[in-house]
Specification:
Order of helices and strands: HEEHEEE
Number of strands: 5
CATH topology: Herpes Virus-1
Strand order of the largest sheet: 2-1-3-4-5
Radius of gyration: 12 Å
CATH architecture: 2-Layer Sandwich
Distance between the termini: 9 Å
Largest sheet: 5 strands, antiparallel
């Protein structure tokens, strides 16, 4: 099964090397996620501020990719599944 939200992904340039929103407020993160619609780098749901999920709810960009070295997976927020 192919996720129809994959068509919304593009080659993006990461906005920062860390969580964009945590860096603004001086917070820490656990792991990073890269939005494949716009390049926003946000922290994962194990992080206190969950900025990647907050970005999805605000921007409605459905798919993120792990922004961790050695990880190569993508997640669709809409379907709550790997793609």
């Amino acid at each position: 099964m192919t996720d129809e939200h994959l068509k919304e992904t593009r080659k993006v340039t990461p906005s920062t090397k860390g969580c964009e929103d945590c860096l603004k407020i001086g917070a820490r993160w656990v792991r990073l996620r890269l939005c494949l619609s716009c390049g926003h780098v946000g922290c994962c749901d194990s992080s206190p501020n969950r900025h990647a999920t907050k970005h999805f709810h605000g921007a409605k960009h459905p798919i993120v990719q792990s922004f961790e070295r050695g990880e190569d997976w993508r997640w669709c927020y809409v379907h709550e599944s790997m793609v």
